[in-house]
Amino acid sequence: MSLDKRMLDLGTEPAAGPRPNFFDDPAMDRVWDVLVALTTELAVTRTRLDSLERVLAEHDCVPTDAVEQWQADEKTSLTQAQAQQEMLARVFRGLAQDVPGKS
Amino acid sequence: MSATAEHSRTAAAPPGGGALPLPMTSMEQHAALPKLSHDDRVRFQVAAGVNGFLSQTLLPLLQRAAAERVEPRIEAELKRPAKDRHEYRAFLEQDLTWRLWSRMRRANMESVQQAARLAVLPQLPDLVQTSRELIERAGNLQLASGLKAPGYLKRLHSHLMPGGYITELGDDDVAAGAAYELGVYAVLGGKSGPASDRAGRATVAWLAEHRPGWKPKRILDLGCGIGANTTAIARAFPEAEIVAVDAGAPMLRQGAARAAALGVDNIRFVQGNAERPPLGDDEQFDLITSLMVLHETSRPGTRKIFQACARHLAPGGLTFHLEQPPYRDKPLLEQCLRDWDGRYNNEAFWSAMHDSDLAAQLRASGFDDAEVYETEANAAQIGATKKTQEDYGRGGAWYVVVGEKPRLQEVRQ
Are the beta carbons of A48 and B38 closer than 8 angstroms? Predict the structure, then answer.
C-alpha cells in the first residue's frame, strides 16, 4: 500500500511540545534520527524478504498479494525477531563496542 | 484459548538474555483493532527491538559511563558528589553515551508514533464505522460534547503522540485511540500482555492478595484511556458495574468499541475530567482506581482527583493509585534515567509527581480518617514480565498509594 502526500503529511505531524537536541551540533541529532529510521526500514525490508522466501516455498505459483495475505505464525515471528536482533547488533556495533573506560 | 494461558505467554530468551519482542499478531484480536500490513507489523516489532537494544545493551554501558566518566568529572570539578539530580544531569548530558542513548530513544519513539498514525489514517473511515456500530449496539459510551479538557492536553502531546488524546480529526474519530492501542503494545514489545493490560491485572492480583474474596460492586476507573486496564478489572469482577472516565473522546470511543468487541459488557465509558468526574454527588463506589494516570496531571489536579475519590468512595471502600515509584532515596543516576520521560517524552508532570509525596497528598485530600499507605504491585507476580534488566520508567515494578475508608460501624465507634 502506498500513501499519498496528504496522508504522509498528516501522519508525519510532530507532537506538540519541545523538541530536544542532545548533541552540540543539531545536525548530529538529525543524522541519528535518520539512522534509527533507516535501520528500522532495512530490518523491515529484510524481514519482508524472509517472508517472501517462505511464501515462495509454500506456493507453487505466487499471486502478487501473497506476502500481504501471509501472516507469520508465532514461531516464525520469533525467528524473524531473532534475525532482527542480529541486524541491530551489526548496525549498532559502534555503540556497543564503545565501552567507557576501555578507550 | 484460556485467558490465563494467553497471559502467561512470554517471549523466548535470545542469546543476549533479554526477552524478544512479541509479534503484533500476539495482540488480543478484536473487531475494532486496526488492521496491519506485513511491513507495519514488522516495523512495530523492530521498534520494540530497538528499545530492547537501548535497555539491554546501551543502558549498561551508560551506567558504566556514569561511574567511569561522569562521576569522576563531577568530583574533579565540584570537589564533592553532585547534590541532586539536576546538578548530576548537567554533567551527564555532556556524556556521549547519554547523548546516543537519549537520541535513539527519542527517535525511536517518534518513529513508533508516526508508524501508528500512518497505519491508522488510511483505514480511519472503516475504523470509525466499525466503532459506531459496536458502540451503538453496546450502548456503553456517554460523551460530553463541549467538555473543557485540561489545557495541557492540547499544549503538550503525551509520549510524543501527535494530536495527543483529545484531538479529533473528524466526526466520531477514533484515530488517537486506535494509534495508542498499537503504539502501547509496540513500545513495550508485548510485555504488557496480549491486551496491554498488565497494570490492570497487577491491580486485580494485589486485591486478591490483600482483600481475598472481595467483590466490589461498583468500580470507578479515572483516566481510563482506551480502557485496556479497566477491561482487565472488568473481567476479574464480571458482576461489578464499572464506570470508566477519561477526557479524550477518541480514546473513549476506541475503548468502548474495544470492550464491546471483546464481549466485556460491564463498563460504561464516560467522558469527563477526572478532576471533577461527571457523577451525581451521592454516587458511591467500592473501588476507585487510577492506573498510570497521576503523572499526566498537575499537583492541584492530583489533589482534585483525590478529593473526588474521597467524595465518591463508599464506607469500607478502597482507592488504588498505581504509578512508577517516587525518586526519593534513589541514586542520582537512576533518578536521571527515570526522569527522562519527564524531560524528553512530553510527560509534563512526570518530574513533579515523582518528587511528591502522594500518600501525604491523599491523606490531606479527605482521607484523614482513612487508612492510607504505600505498597507495591509487580508485573512479574502475574507472569507478565520476566525479570530482565530494569528499564527505568518502563518496567512493570509499580508503586501504589492506597486509601481504605473505614466501614460505617468503625466510624460510629
Answer: yes
Q: Is the pLDDT of residue B384 over 70?
A: no
Task: State residue B386's pLDDT score.
Answer: 53
Average pLDDT over residues B178-206: 93
Complex-level ipTM beyond the 0.85 threshold: no
Query: Would you call B26 an interface residue with chain A, using a CB distance cutoff of 8 Å?
Result: yes
Total structural domains within chain A: 1
Domain count within chain B:
1
Task: Let me know: does B319 contact B288? Beta carbons within 8 Å.
Answer: yes
Q: Using pLDDT thresholds of 50, 70 and 90, give the confidence band for residue B30.
A: very high
Chain A residues in contact with B113 (beta carbon < 8 A): 15
CATH code, B170: 3.40.50.150
Quote the domain boundaries for residue B125. 1-413
Contact residues, chain A, for B183 at CB < 8 Å: none
CB contact under 8 A, B57 and A82: no
Those residues with Cβ within 8 angstroms of residue A55's Cβ, 6 or more apart along the chain or in another chain: A62, A66, A67, A70
Question: Residue B101 pLDDT more than 50?
Answer: yes
CA distances from B63 to A96, A100, B68, B184, B333 (A): 13, 9, 9, 26, 8
Region B33-46: mean pLDDT is: 94
Domain span at residue A62 reads 23-92
